[in-house]
């Protein structure tokens, strides 16, 4: 399956953002359980992060990202890219 990456930037205050983190973590755990090999994290300087996951197509990846609680609740703006692995 192809890899996809959602690069995100927080657009709400920290208190609002943090209230959706438990739901975001549960969302990612569900992706892992479904075989999407998902990983999520934030930049060391804060203010943004990344979700790396596998999906069957860009359309499927977009549908997955739209279900992320951080996206659904307007906490982040993001760009979605297919990541073409060259060396494993």
Walkthrough of the structure:
The protein has 88 residues and is an alpha+beta fold. The chain has four helices and four strands. A four-stranded antiparallel β-sheet has the order 2-3-1-4, covered by helices on one side. Strand 2 and strand 3 form a beta hairpin.
Mind sketching the topology for me?
Layout: E1 3-10, H1 14-19, H2 21-33, E2 39-42, E3 48-54, H3 58-66, H4 69-72, E4 76-83
Antiparallel strand pairs: 1-3, 1-4, 2-3
Secondary structure category? alpha+beta
SSE order in H/E notation?
A: EHHEEHHE
Q: Please, how many helices?
A: 4
Largest sheet geometry: 4 strands, antiparallel
Spans of at least 5 consecutive residues with low confidence: none
Strand composition percent? 25-35%
The side-by-side strand order for the widest beta sheet comes to 2-3-1-4
Radius of gyration: 13 Å
How confident is the prediction overall: mean pLDDT? 96
Report the span from N to C terminus: 14 Å
Proportion of helical residues = 25-40%
**Overall geometry:** globular
Beta strands, count? 4
Structure in a nutshell:
This protein is an alpha+beta fold. It is built from 4 helices and 4 strands, in the order E-H-H-E-E-H-H-E.
Entry keywords:
88 residues, alpha+beta, 36% helix, globular
């Amino acid at each position: 399956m192809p890899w996809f990456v959602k690069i995100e930037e927080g657009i709400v205050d920290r208190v609002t953002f943090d209230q959706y983190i438990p739901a975001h973590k549960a969302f990612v755990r569900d992706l892992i359980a479904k075989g999407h090999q998902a990983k999520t994290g934030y930049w060391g300087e804060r203010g943004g992060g990344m979700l790396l996951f596998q999906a069957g197509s860009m359309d499927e990846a977009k549908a997955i990202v739209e279900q992320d609680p951080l996206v659904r609740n307007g906490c982040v703006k993001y760009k979605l890219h297919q990541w073409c692995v060259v060396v494993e």
